[in-house]
Amino acid sequence: MRVFISHAWQDKPLALALAQLPDFVDVWVDVRELLGGQSLDPTIVRAIEDSHVFIVLVSRTSLAKAWVAKEVEWALAREAQKDRVFVLPVLIEPGIDFSTCAPPFTPFAERLFIDASDTSESGLAKSRAAIGLTLFHWASDWLEAMEPRGDSNHHFAEALEADLAEYQTRLFAVKAALAWPLPTLVQDDAVAHLVKVKDEYNAFTERFMPRLTDADGEIRQRFGVSAQRGFARLVTFIRNEVFHGAAFALNDVIESINAYDTVLRQDPAALAAAEARRSQRVAALEPVMAELVERTADYLDTLR
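Now predict its structure.
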C-alpha cells in the first residue's frame, strides 16, 4: 500500500517518525521545503495519484500553511472521484477543534481521525500502531478488490491511450492492405500480407473490445460521471461506426478475394462491380478513421 504524508515543514521530524509504519506500507514523505505561493507541483500530484491513501498531519502550523491546504483540497477532490475513503487526518497537536478550522480542514470534524498528539516515544509507538491498524483494515476492505494494480490516473490514461492507438494502427494496416485493385490483391504475396494484418486486427479486437466495456466503471471511479459519459460516447462510436460499421464492411472485399478464381476471373462485369465495391468500402473508411483519431485525441485531453 502506497501512502502519501502531507505535513508542514516544521513538522518534518514528526512526519519521519510516524512514517515508520509496517512493511506493507510504502510511505512517501517530501524532503523539500515548498513555498505556499507555489501551484501544486506535478511531482506532488503524481505522488498523491500513485498513493492508495493520503495522510495529513494536522497541527496549528500545518493549518496555517497554504501549501498543506492545497494538498488537502486536491486529495479531498480525489476522494470524491474515487467514491471511497482516501484521506486520513492525523492530529499531532492537542487542543485542535476541526469544527472551528477553516476549509478544507472543516470536514475532518465529521470523520475518522487518529490522535497522535502524544509525541513521547511510547506515544509515537501507539500512534504508529493505530495508523498501521487503520491502513490494514482499509486494505482488507477494499484495496485488493478495487485497485490491485495501484491507482495512478496518469498510468491508466497512458494505458488507455496505448490501446486506442494500437486499434487505430491495426485498422490502418488492414485498410492499407486492401488499397490495391483486386487482381493485385489475389497475388500470393499480397494475400499473405493481408492474412497477417487481418489476423492481427482480429486477435487485438478480441481483447480490446471487452476492455472498453470493463474500463467504463473504472473511469467513473477515477475521473467522475462526466468523464464516464464522454467515454461512453467514444465507445459507442467505435462499436457502431467503426468496428461494426465501416471496418466490418471491409469483409465484402475479403469475400471478393475469395471468389476471384472461381467467379470473378471469368466474369468481367462481376469483377468490375466487385472492384467498385472494394474502392467504395476503402474510401468510406477514410473519414471514419479520421473522426476516430479526432474523437480519441479530444477525449484523452479531458483525462489529462
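The chain has two domains: 2-146, 153-303.
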